[in-house]
Amino acid sequence: MPEQPPRRILVTGVGANPGFGLARSLLRLGHRVVAVDANPLATGFFLDDVSPYAIPLATDPDYPEAIMGLCQALAVDAIVAGIENDLPPLLDLRPRLDADGVRLWLPDAKSVHDCIDKARFHHVLNEHGIPTPRTWEPEDLDLVPAGTELVVKPRGGHGGQGVHMVTSLRHARVLCELVPGAIVQERGRGTEFTADCLVDREGKASVVLRRRDLVKAGCVAVSSTFEDQAVHDLVLDTLRAVRAQGLCCVQGFSTDDGRVSITELNVRLAGGYALTESAGADLIGQMVNGLFGLPVDHDQLTYRTGVFLTNYLETLRVGDVAELDVAAAPKGAVA
Asked: Are 109 and 243 in contact, with CB atoms under 8 Å apart?
């Protein structure tokens, strides 16, 4: 398969691990990266050779204008979201992006919303008979069996933000008043895993399994690749249930007695995907192929088991705020 020519790709959410890592990988592949984030101090802005732009929050009415303005001013070839918040407004912009020739590789709108809304995702899994932790709305907490260990989380959350582990139903009730749009789930038990997935336009999927051996604040700190047919097959079932397409990651738990359950599916790159690439899978390269309508070579997405990754926090840059060289996104017409 011929190599991709250099593309200009806009990556959102470069202040979070997935967006930061994606921008860095695209640069290594020779592409030009337009890095955007609402925080002018986002870590991805300090990567060498990116074009950094501060944009409004995804919920801001000016967000669509900022994205379209950047695409038009910089002749952007494609957009890849690095954080869930950007998905709803990008879906709304898809017709305009298509008209301008800007690639966006996402499933249909219902599929995306079924994944980013954890209550809807739980319902879809139940409809398809896919094992998943029991889930309750705040008004249904009287139905929770006594002694159940629980997780309280925002139904639209991401990156482990706003997630609380509790053993008391009383504590769960209090947290439901404090966590915006809360849902309550039975706490998963066993080995936690992430599956890095790439689903081509014909529905064929490649899956790379990683244990989440140590998790800190929702981000994997220690991880290792593994094989397990039951986990692999249930991940495939999950991808089919939500009609996944493109890049995504599935999380869940497996136990020593062979039980597997799925907890969530993120319609984006996982923060620990560097392990997948180190284990031999050309995840980003094949994603770019699919993004631009070329075949995904699943033979390039095989991986070695027993490969590990450790993460740690590092100070990337220290400097004077007054000397920042981050531009505001230009305004463009979206009508």
From this structure: no
Helix (H), strand (E) at residue 238: helix 229-241
Q: Are residues 142 and 55 in the same domain?
A: no
Is the Cβ–Cβ distance between 279 and 304 less than 8 Å? yes
Six-digit token pair at 189?
A: 């038990």
Q: Which helix (H) or strand (E) holds 67?
A: helix 63-74
- Which has the closest alpha carbon to 214: 113, 285, 290, 310? 310
Range 157-165 average pLDDT: 76
**How far is C-alpha 131 from the chain's CA centre?**
21
CA distances from 55 to 62, 64, 65, 195, 302 (A): 9, 10, 10, 31, 37
Percent over 70 (pLDDT), the chain: 96
Name the CA radius of gyration of the chain, rounded.
20
Residue identified by tokens 């319609």 is 267
77 and 98 in a single domain? The answer is yes
- pLDDT of the residue at 195: 98
Indicate the length of the chain as a whole number. 335
Cα torsion through 234, 240, 244, 246, rounded to 10: 80
Based on the domain organization, do 31 and 80 belong to the same domain? yes
Do 205 and 282 have their domain in common? yes
Q: Tell me the residue range of the domain where 149 lies.
A: 134-186
Q: Is residue 121 part of a domain?
A: no
